[in-house]
Amino acid sequence: MKIPFNLPPKSSNEEKYISQAISNKKLSGEGQFNKKCTEWFNKNLPTLMTVITPSCTSALEMAMVLADIGPGDEVILPSFTFTSTANVVALYGAIPVFVDVDPKTMNIDVDAIAKAITARTRVIMPVHYAGVGCEMDKIMDLANKNNIWVVEDAAQGIFASYKGKALGAWGHMAAFSFHETKNIVCGEGGALTINDPRLVARAEIVRDKGTNRQQFLNGQVDKYTWQDKGSSYLLSELSAAFLLSQLEEGEKITARRMAIWKQYYAGMADLEAAGKVQRMTVPAEAKANAHIFYFLLPTMQTRIELWTHLKEAGIQSTFHYVPLHSAPAGLKYGKVSGSMAVTDDHSARLLRLPLWADMTAADAQFVLDEVNKFFKGK
Ligand SMILES: *Cc1c(COP(=O)(O)O)cnc(C)c1O
């Protein structure tokens, strides 16, 4: 493969920080690097409290524990998302209620959320697809009026904002991912940001196996005990050391991705004008982070043909989510509210091009040339 779909970004201080973490002889989630990553989020989003977690999936799980969802409760989310968003809901016996997405952004449709709200609705989970912010002002209004929690799935949303406010700083809670396929990585890792003061005290207990160990470490109690439901939501200090180096250079990594994204966007303008493709749109209110460059093909058939053409040229392009409402577990645990027309149609015609921070302009041009070659005479 000449051009793989993704390669993880490299930052300057990963080895140095990992060596320091080893020398510090504090390898659990209470070390200095975990603390520094936490402070980075608290200061830069900003947010009230951050837990650096083993994954975005575990951050979403912790959010479900904090929202205290259980059997019969309903959680509204898009069907066009990664498995984890819905899986954490089913894990606690609650019902994922799938709604359609906006055709322009592939983000959750706010009118569809409004129609899906019932007396059992406890949480709304907007997913910032491709790092493009959902309409968070409207979603927060709707949620606050109905006394519903909002948990942003900001797995793809680091260094992006909506109406000038960072993704992950809008909801009552938000979950980020540092999986190697994301913009900022540490192998496997995530973060839960908490923006509502009502959740902070419980979060300290839930993150630490349901104990008040944090109060013990602070000298507030002389022994710690089991207080509440919880789990181990802490990241190893070795991974946190890697993560800090990445966060510190995150602006640069994002800018390098953005340059490639812009090259793709400009390079496909003519194809769009000729009606051959439809490029992704970033609304004026959203500052995106070049997590994904995607476009829609006219049909499912053309998508597979272009995918095959690129593969033969040594370029790895990829489709994206199989809508969860039609997946086996979605059928078993979830339910649908309203039409799924956009989700069904667009998910079958969407293609993502390779995009990573160290990709060169020549790499991107090679991809564009092959895309153009495919459409010649079509
Ligand atoms: C990557 C991703 C996740 C899962 O992240 P992990 O860190 O691998 O658990 C969840 N939701 C969305 C939208 C994602 O893109």
TrEMBL record:
One of its GO terms (biological process) is polysaccharide biosynthetic process. The keyword Acetylation does not apply. The modification N6-(pyridoxal phosphate)lysine is found at K182. Keywords: Pyridoxal phosphate. One of its GO terms (molecular function) is pyridoxal phosphate binding. It holds the Pfam family DegT_DnrJ_EryC1. It comes from the Bacteria. The active site is at K182. The keyword DNA-binding does not apply. Belongs to the DegT/DnrJ/EryC1 family. PANTHER family: DTDP-4-AMINO-4,6-DIDEOXYGALACTOSE TRANSAMINASE (PTHR30244:SF34), TRANSAMINASE (PTHR30244). This is Lipopolysaccharide biosynthesis protein. The gene is rffA.
